[in-house]
Write a structure and sequence with these properties.
This protein has a 4-stranded antiparallel beta sheet. It contains 4 helices and 4 strands; from the N terminus they run βαββαβαα.
Length: 138
């Protein structure tokens, strides 16, 4: 199955981001997974302050990893990454139609949205909800 993981790491030290991405990639490869892409989004403000490990974070360094693995391996990687104290958030989604990957960007995922610079982030809350429901996130 094709998965996409978006991870948010404490900002300020790119070395920590690389170590966490390496840890996730190593776990995947050791358990028979295949990494399709790794994208560094860099630091962004979070939508709201997040408390994690007795600290409040208002920004985080984001990276996206697309990979093929079994559901068990995906759960193992997610759990291993989530308990790292340098992590703020981590989310994994299964890509629909992931078995039929056409080219590197054949399937549109969450990471494709950030590359375009979403317009809906600049709208006020009432217009944002309507725009997302009406047009989607693109």
């Amino acid at each position: 199955m094709l998965y996409e993981m978006i991870a948010v790491v404490r900002p300020g030290n790119i070395k920590e981001v690389k170590e966490i991405a390496l840890k996730a990639g190593t776990l995947l490869l050791q358990n028979g997974g295949v990494i399709r892409s790794l994208t560094n989004w860099g630091p962004f403000l979070l939508a709201k302050p997040v408390k994690k490990h007795q600290q409040t974070h208002d920004s985080g360094h984001h990276f996206i990893m697309r990979f093929d693995s079994s559901p068990e391996v995906q759960a193992t990687v997610r759990k291993a990454i989530a308990i790292d104290p340098r992590m703020i958030r981590c989310g994994v989604v299964k890509m629909v139609g992931g078995d039929k990957l056409v080219g590197e960007h054949g399937i549109r995922g969450m990471s494709d949205i950030g590359a375009e610079g979403p317009i809906w982030r600049k709208m006020d809350k009432s217009r944002r909800a309507t725009a997302i429901l009406k047009d989607g996130l693109t």
